[in-house]
Specification:
Blueprint: E1 5-13, H1 17-27, E2 35-38, H2 46-54, E3 59-60, H3 65-68, H4 76-85, H5 88-97, E4 102-104, E5 109-112, H6 117-130, E6 134-136, E7 141-146, E8 153-157, E9 162-170, H7 176-184, E10 189-195, E11 199-200, E12 213-223, E13 226-236, E14 240-242, H8 244-252, H9 254-259, E15 263-269, H10 276-289, H11 306-315, H12 329-341, E16 342-347, E17 357-362, E18 367-368, E19 373-374, E20 380-382, H13 396-424
Parallel strand pairs: 1-2, 1-9, 2-6, 9-20
Antiparallel strand pairs: 3-5, 4-5, 7-8, 8-9, 10-17, 11-14, 12-13, 12-15, 13-14, 15-16, 18-19
Helix pairs in contact: 1-6, 1-13, 2-6, 4-13, 10-12
Length: 427
């Protein structure tokens, strides 16, 4: 048989985190399985390379499956079972058993101790090589044909090579290629839209304050008739707003914001959790004890950076020279409203360069999450971001890729073991 026409037990389409993990898991059990990874580009694991600013945010320090699923705007229900089988604890053990020690940072993100994504890439490449998996680069798949006899599928790539396989693992991420292949196999594709992005806005309250951060805010977005609130740190940027609170909002309201063409009202409570009345009382007490201080100098009891506080004071019409003792009741009420319910007009989306995440993909009801096998086309399995699953920033998207890749690999191995048993049974 020519090199351009080979037969495998399983072909993995997509050389990313999920595809590699599935191939490694499968090829190690049963030994001797013929497995190939087809990667459309010259370089596999490109997303691993750039994640976490080049450090690779492998997973998150969250070891309770019930809590873990709360970090997934889409797919949380479906992932509950898979996370009970393979969660961050197993991910950490998997890498450390292969010579990649990991560390958890204060915010829960887990990185290799080398702070270098190449460490993770080298580990995965070594594991694939040790398992005997063949990697075929520059192999862009253009079609999959179902066969009535012999191997179930014939795969054709852009160069004209034909590859026969008994099973397929589709792990092409959010590429249009994977969606088209899945659609041709009978699957429904939930239209992909961006998730995890920053907000563009132009507001005099924020001009010149790029780099100023608030430690904890409560932010609410109103778009498409839906109201979503998330909490976390907030970062002022040259183009608008970023930080965990904004990224979480973008994820949970991804579809509504897309429909609204990223035009929405954003309300921010800069205290994080205080109500208007609690904030008002706190400022009253501060006025009584610090009456001679200027209002513009800030309030030590509130976690609002000095430069932003000055801008808010000016925005509500309070003179920067006014002392707290001369602040009127009406001015106090206006300032409180600005602090706990300041409204900003979102006029577009930016990018979050460390993550490339979409909401959308294979409709989840068409996948068996005990095995990751298609309910539409037997013999086809899915893993990673090709599914309509996405998590917030912090290692959660990689974790769903490791988990679904591992489960698909396990299920494929069991299916192949069943094939071997049938073939070897006496007739």
């Amino acid at each position: 048989m020519s090199p351009s026409h080979k037969t495998y037990d399983c072909v993995v389409i997509g050389g990313g985190a999920a595809g590699f993990f599935g191939a490694i898991t499968l090829a190690n059990s049963p030994p001797g399985a013929r497995v190939a990874i087809l990667e459309a580009t010259k370089h596999p694991l490109t997303k691993v390379a750039v994640s976490g600013g080049g450090r690779c945010n492998v997973t998150h320090n969250c070891f309770d499956p019930a809590e873990l699923i709360t970090h997934y705007p889409r797919g949380s229900v479906e992932l509950r079972g898979p996370f009970s089988r393979f969660q961050p604890r197993e991910t950490v053990s998997w890498f450390e058993d292969r010579g990649v020690p990991l560390k958890a940072e204060a915010d829960g993100r887990i990185f290799p101790t080398t702070d270098n994504s190449q460490t993770v890439i080298d580990c995965l490449l070594l594991a694939v090589g040790s398992a005997g998996v063949e990697i075929r680069l520059d192999s862009r798949v253009v079609g999959i044909r179902r066969n009535e006899t012999g191997p179930r599928f014939s795969i054709r790539d852009e160069a004209g090579a034909v590859i026969d396989t008994h099973r397929i693992l589709l792990a092409t991420g959010s590429s249009a290629l994977g969606y088209n292949l899945a659609r041709a196999l009978g699957h429904t594709i939930v239209p992909p839209v961006p998730s995890l992005f920053t907000f563009k806005l132009s507001d005099p309250r924020l001009e010149g304050l790029a780099g100023v951060a608030c430690p904890s805010v409560s932010a609410t977005i109103s778009a498409g008739g839906r109201i979503v609130t998330k909490t976390g740190p907030l970062l002022i940027t040259h183009w608008g707003l970023s930080g965990p609170a904004i990224l979480r909002l973008s994820a949970w309201a991804a579809r509504e914001l897309h429909t609204a063409k990223y035009q929405a009202a954003l309300t921010v409570n800069l205290t994080g959790a205080l109500s208007a009345e609690e904030t008002r009382e706190l400022l009253r007490e501060f006025r009584e004890t610090h009456g001679r201080k200027r209002v513009a100098s800030g309030c030590d009891a509130l976690p609002i950076p000095r430069r932003l506080w000055e801008r808010l004071v000016a925005h509500v019409g309070v003179s920067l020279d006014l002392s707290w003792s001369h602040l009127s009741r009406e001015q106090l009420a206006t300032l409180v409203e600005e602090i706990v319910a300041g409204v900003y007009a979102v006029r577009g989306k930016g990018e979050f360069k460390e993550e490339f995440v979409t909401a959308g993909g294979i409709a989840l009801e068409e996948v068996n999450f005990r095995t990751m096998e298609s309910r539409v086309t037997p013999g086809v399995y899915f893993a990673g971001e090709i599914l309509d699953i996405d998590g917030v920033t912090g290692g959660f998207n990689f974790q769903s890729s490791w988990t679904t890749g591992w489960i698909a690999g396990q299920a494929l191995a069991e299916a192949m073991a069943g094939d071997i048993a049938i073939q070897s049974s006496p007739r």
